[in-house]
Design brief:
The complex is a heterodimer of chains A (497) and B (419). Chain A has 497 residues and is α+β, with helices and mostly antiparallel strands. Chain A contains 13 helices and 23 strands. Chain A has helices spanning 15-24, 63-72, 75-82, 98-113, 124-130, 152-165, 209-215, 288-298, 344-361, 387-396, 412-420, 426-433, 446-457; strands spanning 6-11, 31-34, 51-52, 86-87, 91-95, 120-122, 140-144, 148-150, 169-171, 176-182, 185-190, 195-203, 224-233, 244-247, 257-260, 266-269, 273-274, 307-317, 324-327, 334-338, 403-405, 410-411, 476-477. In chain A, helix 1 (15-24) links the parallel strand 1 (6-11) and strand 2. Chain B has 419 residues and is α/β, with parallel strands linked by helices. The relative contact order of chain B is 0.13. Chain B has helices at residues 15-26, 63-75, 127-130, 143-153, 168-179, 198-205, 264-269, 306-325, 400-404; strands at 2-11, 31-34, 50-52, 61-62, 80-83, 86-92, 97-103, 107-118, 122-124, 140-142, 155-156, 160-164, 183-189, 212-214, 216-222, 229-236, 239-240, 246-248, 252-255, 259-261, 293-295, 334-338, 342-346, 349-350, 356-362, 366-375, 378-388, 394-398, 414-418. Classes of the chains: A alpha+beta (497), B alpha/beta (419). Chains A and B meet through strand 18, helix 10, helix 13 and strand 23 of A and strand 6, strand 7, strand 8, helix 3 and helix 4 of B.
């Protein structure tokens, strides 16, 4: 623990906080990133749909419209530096009627005005040739070749790894509960009793940006969660499209989408349901029929039979529906980054730039670090290698030859890398490696991962959690629990009829 | 890269793979067995309860004991190579077939062979497959995973458990949990009848006073970090009766909601799969749509008893040997299809001129049912069945004599029905 005063504390290690921290790591600036969960990206980011949007939904008069367009074009370079799963597979918005085509034309015009490259209006033949699995009733639509898909949590892991490599400090399990303005700095206290000091603060706390703002006596914000439930389908699903498929959007949301994930599975969703509780991530069966009905309208081959799992996430929405990124008017050393809902993931790299500039404006002196290294090492993934490449690797590092997760072809060496990068919960390992994410959902690999975790970290089996405090997986050892009715225990001579 | 050549490669060293390997090698062919785990035996190793081998060995064995019988047989044969902790990731069919097998010890080995036996078994259906609403906390396990954790690793996953599904693994686990000191609050079954064997209902639930809730479902899982409870809702005429829902406070949920043949490698071979079984379509010799690729055991269809798996796998192996000897002629096989009230019948073809053995599953629950095998609407053979239900596999044989009766007909498609 440092005794000095950090230049910047970023609250929240989601995609927004991580992008900001990573941007700051290019400068001689003492930065700490604070995360209440046990691992990064465990909040809003974890359940993001993972779409890099095509820049045609919002006007550039909105902040989110501007940052979306700027953010989109930054991903190629980021991927070269950070090696996260990302594919510019393109986006299609499909229209079923002449009226819908009018909305499509408006979206096209919006995109052209936003200076998006490559947008095209499609007639029936064109759109069906771009995506042969579309419903034959689709009459035309919009094609945005710059749109794509990404693994959001993996993106955050890479950003954090890069930031850490360049001197940013990460503090997980650091839930900010109290702050005081002292002379020239904030004294920030965590729920676990730890505290630290920082001259500037960035509030990127996602769903809890309003609470953090209140803790720092800044603006009164009200974040309202908007739940989105997604269904994940098997990579063998017949309905898996080549491009992200949108319907023509409604006022509330962009609608139910069919998303080919960058790792080859398929996602259907998200719903958009307002709720009050920021902790309630429960899934429901009631919207199941609607989701699949809508998805099948786009791609008739989408089937419930292919569901691997379903999960829900919460979008942090703010009144007015635009991003709120500004120097606080009440605390001139605090930058507010709130209401970052869709297209927040796409905009995140641009938000990093934008917040860096705001910090400068707020008085932070930023000088570039001569030793800044934007690259992180690419960890080999056995599923990406040919058998010959894999053999060469296993000869050097045998742990690549031990396949732990058969559904997603993940080796022991990849699990160990995850743990050494600090991902020591079962979910952290899942998001880093994809082990437990396939069709068996951990049925065949979780007991192996439990063993590796114990060996690598020295944790006892009872200490291992799914995703942090309270989510322990194993309660006792055999022999450790009192058997209530010893008479019921086996005698060893039982007859089988 | 190390390269190896065998007559046959068997994928999986569990009950099916072992039985097949023993029989193929016993006929003088060379065999490689690829096993992902660090020991042979497959899921039998975690099935420490008894009830295995009653048909096959006329003895009541535990799972590991049953496996040991075959492991001993396979170890006595010097033309079987066992590769442990080895996973086949890439395969291509052809002459020969090639397999890339990954292991810590040897790196990636390229294995060429003329015949393949798919014996990878099955996997458990999980929460995502059945879509239980609610939160997603720790404490939800498939029953087989929990069985593995307790019986092999010695870890207890919780203290108060609810089991969803009355399949055999769920029932066995109800008893096992009780024995290690976990309180089992009940077994919930969506159907109006139990889906496990009757002997397991008696020995695993009734003997321990564990309630079985038939026609009930789990309508919600609660708990933010770890499971804190579930809501159980009765079903009437297929609809939930929410007014009669009740809560159970538990920290653990075990799912025993069915098994799915694990055919990822079969897909890579280009084998065509039967949506009814989840396994390959096979002819009378248990050969799939890809020449030289055979399937047996739970990867072909999910069996009730390991004894049947062994029988089927040995039968498969005999045909593999014929194939290797060049005497296998799939053109002589004729189709057999499911008729009334039959979910599936395996194999999908029969071979006149020999005794053919079939396994089938009923779609209906009925006492005093009749099995009818017919050719062009004309019954060829009838068999009385005391009781049928979807969860209990039915077996029957057709011998040369049965099959000769219809031999005048040009159309040789058989149909099997239950009335």
């Amino acid at each position: 623990m440092k005794n000095n005063i950090y230049d910047v504390a970023v609250v929240g290690a989601g995609v927004v906080g991580a992008s900001i921290a990573r941007k700051l790591s290019a400068y001689a600036c003492d930065t700490v990133i604070l995360e209440k969960e046990w691992d990064v990206s465990f909040g809003v980011t974890k359940t993001n749909s993972g779409i890099i949007h095509g820049g045609f939904h919002y006007p550039t008069s909105t902040l989110k419209g501007r940052l979306e367009v700027l953010g989109n074009i930054m991903f190629d370079r980021l991927q070269q530096e950070l090696h996260f799963p990302f594919r510019r597979c393109g986006i299609l918005a499909a229209a079923f009627t002449i009226e819908e085509m009018k909305t499509i034309e408006k979206m096209y015009m919006q995109g052209v005005e936003n200076k998006v490259i490559g947008l095209e209006l499609c007639n029936r033949d064109r759109i069906h040739s771009l995506e042969p699995k579309l419903n034959p009733d689709v009459v035309g639509g919009l094609h945005a070749p710059s749109g794509g898909v990404i693994e959001p949590y993996h993106f955050v892991f890479s950003l954090i790894e890069s930031a850490k490599k360049n001197g940013v400090e990460l503090r997980t399990r650091f839930k900010v509960v109290k702050a005081e303005k002292r002379k020239g700095h904030f004294l920030i206290q965590a729920e676990n009793g730890e505290s630290l000091r920082a001259r500037y603060l960035v509030n990127a706390a996602g769903l809890y940006a309003d609470e953090v703002s209140a803790i720092f006596n800044a603006e009164h914000l009200q974040i309202k969660p908007l739940k989105g439930q997604e269904f994940l389908l098997d990579r063998n699903a017949a309905g898996l499209p080549g491009k992200v498929i949108f319907p023509v959007p409604s006022i509330v949301s962009k609608g139910i989408l069919v998303i080919p994930t960058p790792e080859g599975t398929c996602m259907v969703g998200p719903t958009a349901i307002e709720q009050k509780d920021k902790e309630d991530l429960s899934t429901s069966q009631s919207n199941f029929a609607t989701v699949f009905h809508s998805a099948r309208r786009l791609i008739p081959k989408i089937s419930e039979r292919d569901i691997i799992t379903s999960f829900a996430g919460l979008r942090p929405t703010l009144k007015g529906n635009d991003f709120y990124i500004a120097i606080s008017e009440k605390q001139p050393e605090l930058i507010q980054v709130a209401g970052i809902q869709s297209p927040g993931l796409t905009a995140a790299p641009a938000i990093g730039e934008y917040v860096k500039d705001l910090l400068k404006k707020a008085g932070l002196v930023l000088t570039e670090r001569p030793d800044y290294d934007p690259f992180v090492d690419e960890i080999p993934r056995i599923r990406k290698l040919s058998p010959y490449e894999a053999d060469a690797l296993v000869q050097k590092e045998p742990a690549y030859g031990e396949i732990i997760c058969r559904c997603e072809s993940v080796s022991e060496a990849e699990i160990v890398s995850a743990i050494r990068q600090g991902h020591t919960t079962m979910d952290g390992i899942k998001f880093y490696t994809r082990a437990q994410m396939g069709r068996c959902q951990g049925g065949f690999c979780s007991y192996k991962i439990l063993k590796i975790l114990q060996r690598e970290t020295g944790m006892s089996i009872e200490e291992i959690t799914k995703r942090g405090l309270g989510s322990n997986l194993i309660t006792d050892r055999v022999g450790g629990l009192a058997v209530k009715d010893p008479a019921a225990a086996p005698t060893g001579t039982e007859e089988v009829k | 890269m190390i390269e190896k050549h065998y007559d046959a490669v068997v994928f999986g060293g569990g009950s099916a793979g072992l039985a097949a390997a023993v029989r193929i090698a016993g006929q003088g062919c060379s065999v490689a067995v690829l096993e992902r785990e660090n020991e042979l035996g497959g899921i039998l190793n975690q099935c420490i309860h008894n009830g295995f081998g009653i048909q096959r060995f006329k003895e009541d064995l535990t799972g590991p004991e049953y496996a040991e019988r075959f492991i001993e047989m396979v170890e006595e044969l010097d033309n079987v190579s066992i590769f442990l902790e080895t996973t086949a990731l890439e395969v291509t069919h052809g002459t020969p077939h090639s397999v890339f097998a990954y292991s810590k010890r040897y790196g990636v080995i390229k294995i060429e062979c003329r015949a393949i036996v798919l014996a990878m078994g099955c996997r458990e259906r999980n929460r995502g497959n059945i879509g239980i609403p609610g939160t997603r906390p720790a404490g939800v396990f498939t029953a087989g995973l929990a069985q593995r954790l307790i019986n092999i690793d010695g870890y207890i996953p919780g203290r108060r458990a609810v089991i969803l599904g009355s399949g055999d693994i769920g029932l066995i686990m109800a008893r096992r949990l009780t024995w290690v000191g976990v309180e089992v609050l009940g077994v919930i079954e969506i159907q109006g009848y139990p889906s496990g064997l009757t002997r397991n209902i008696v020995q695993c639930l009734n003997d321990f006073n564990i309630p079985l809730y038939l026609s009930h479902t789990l309508s919600e899982i609660r708990g933010k970090d770890r499971v804190t409870g579930v809501t159980v809702t009765p079903l009437q005429d297929g609809k939930t009766v929410t007014a009669k829902s009740f809560d159970l406070d538990c920290d653990t949920i075990l799912l025993s909601v069915g098994l799915i043949p694990d055919n990822e490698l079969s897909r890579k071979f280009g084998v065509s799969l039967n949506p009814e079984t989840g396994g390959p379509f096979v002819d009378a010799g248990l050969m799939s749509s890809v020449p030289g690729v055979f399937a047996c055991g739970n990867v072909l269809h999910v069996h009730d008893l390991v004894d049947y798996v062994s029988e089927e796998s040995e039968r498969c192996a005999s045909f593999v040997v014929e194939y290797l000897n060049g005497t296998y002629n799939p053109l002589l096989h004729h189709p057999i299809v499911s008729g009334a009230n039959v979910k599936y019948v395996i194999p999908n073809k029969y071979l006149p001129g020999m005794t053919n053995r079939f396994y089938l599953r009923s779609l209906i629950v009925k006492n005093k049912a009749e099995l009818v095998i017919s050719l062009e609407g004309e019954p060829l053979k009838r068999k009385n069945l005391a009781h049928v239900q979807p969860s209990e596999m039915v077996s029957f044989s057709l011998d040369e004599q049965d099959l000769s009766r219809g031999s005048e007909s040009r159309e040789k498609k058989l149909e099997v029905s239950i009335y």
